Each structure stands twice: as structure tokens, then as C-alpha cells.
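[Automated response] Your request has been received and processed.

Submitted sequence:
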Amino acid sequence: MSAVNLISAESIKLFSTRSPWWCNLLAMVLPVGFATAAVLSWPTDVPISVTEVQMGYQFGMMLVLVMAALAVTTEYRFGTMRTTFQAVPGRSSALLAKTALVAGVAGLVGLVAALGSLGVASVLHPVSDLGLGTADELRAVLGVAPVFVFSAVIAVAVGLLVRQSAGALALLLVWPMLVEPLVSVIPTVGEHIQQWMPFVAADHFLRGERSMIADPVLSPAMALAYFAAVSVGLLAVALVVARRRDA
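Generated structure:
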């Protein structure tokens, strides 16, 4: 089966249920809503930065993680993954097609959310210069798309490894929201370890000096490369595991 046919089949499975539609819609709406709330609460005579406008990306990212994980775990739950593997005995090609589709959708959602947040802020707070004139501003807005892409890859990998929706979602939501922020409280080595947490690295890529890392080792560009490497490495492990165990 060709790659185009595989992706077409995966798109039918992905969008034949309501949960991906709701997750993607909310992933676009919530960051825009956060930007709206931030601008409305901001002093009208004080400029707001592009980075501050994009702070709501994390809400969208959480929903992208949910959407991507459910794209895998739902198939295991209802047994359609077994049918998929019977149709594509190599398994890896079907799973890569699913990953490519989910990641592509996530990237598009991230781009819409970031541009929507910027547009709303520009209208509601005209005193601010919210153009994309610097590399930091471009990264804060356009960088949301690749962060969503690699976040989706991580979620697919976790879904393949865990296979149960509740467990996968719990891990994907607790890790970036609770575990990574709390790593810094470990005595002596906490702040150093935190720099190498994947979602902290993604945040450093988007926010630069405004991220939670006080003395970064990686540049923003290298932070994105590291985040991408973690996501691809985790997916590679998940593909090996998926090929070796029963569906």
C-alpha cells in the first residue's frame, strides 16, 4: 500500500470520531482566548510583547497531546489496530503514516492558534507593536507549529507504548505540567536537569530569555533540535516495541 493510501486511510480513521475535532478546535480557541484575556487585563498605555501574547500556547499543546494519544489508544481499545496490522503486515509504515498525519494536523493547529492570538492582540491592543520584525518574535509565533508537531509525535509514541487512553493521557498531561516544573526543586542538580526536560526545552525555544531556564546551556534553535531528537527517538523505540508485541 502506498504512502498516500496509508495517510488517506488514517485520515478517515482520525476524523470519523468527534474527539479529534473537539481537541483541535479547542487547541485553536483556547490560546486565542488566553491572548484575549491577557490583552484585556493589560494596561492600555503599556505595550505588550509578542511573547506574552503567545503564552496560551501551552493550553493548545495539552489538547494536541490528547488528540495525538487518542488517535493511537482508541484503535487499541476498539481493536481496529489489529485490523490495520493485518492489512499492513510491516506495521511501521502504517504507524509512520498515522504519525505523519497527526503531526501535520497538529502543526496546522499550532499555526492557526499562534496567528489567531497575534491577530486578536493586535486589534485589541493597538498601542503595541506586534509585528514580526525580529528573530525572537518570529520564533515566538511561527515556532508554535513545530513545537505542536513534535509534541504530537511524542504523544503518538506514548500511546503506542502505553496503549491505554487513561494511562497515556495521565502521563502526557502530568509530565509537562507537574513533573518538569518541579524538577528544579531537586537540591544542587535540579536546575541543570530541568534544562534537559523536553517540554522545558520547547518552551525555551519559543520564549527565549522569558522561559523558566535561568542560565540556558542550549540556544533556542538547539533547544528545538533537542526536542525534535527526543520525540523522534521516543517514536523509534515505540515502533520497535509495537512490532514485537501482539496488537
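Summary generated for your ticket: DSSP finds twelve helices and no strands in the chain. Residues 3-244 form one domain.
If you did not submit this request, please reply to this message.
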